[in-house]
Amino acid sequence: MLYGTSMERATERGTRRGEERRAEIVRRALEVIAERGYRGATLGAVAERVGLTQQGLLHYFPTKDSLLIAVLEERDQWDTGSARRAGGHIWPLDLLASLVDYNAMRPGIVQTFSALLGESVTDDHPARGFFTQRYDRVRADMAAILRGEFGDRLPGGLTPEAAAPLLVAVMDGLQFQWLHDRDAVDMPALFRAFVSLLGQGDEAAKG
Q1: Integer Cα distance of 91 and 81 in angstroms
Q2: pTM of the model
Q3: pLDDT tens digits for 59-112?
Q4: Among the four residues 23, 152, 180, 185, which has the most C-beta atoms within 10 Å?
């Protein structure tokens, strides 16, 4: 019985060390991709950054594509890219603006994500499927956020489903502009300005 307990503890420690190692590899891979882009990032460069041989890295991630997807999934967990809090509850619109504030404090993460997003539009890119599915999910979440804020119609007349792609486009588009010139583009302030426009009716928008 004691033998079994010792074995279980050893297995748990091994699993925990493996998870910690995988998390470290993902963090270092993100750094390398931020510096070189996905095409220029190699498994060898990531392995060197972590202190492993390339063969050792392949024990955790058998392909470069699997590592890339892990990086993207980790990024989504950091900023709750699906716009959901713990427990699956949809964020209110003001907390979505707080997410933009948070992204403005970590340009390296935003740069990596934006670079991969741009690269993924090619048919053969390994992240294309990830981003396609992500946008489906994010549009649905944004529609739910807008419905929670405004009901079935926004003041300007759009349905939440019609306005959701616009909200996503503003968030991602502002990130690209901000990355090119952070002094000229106040990403959090501009996002809040757009949110205020969503709350205006036809007459207010004309005025």
Answers
A1: 11
A2: 0.72
A3: 999 988 888 888 888 777 655 544 455 445 567 888 888 889 988 988 877 888
A4: 185
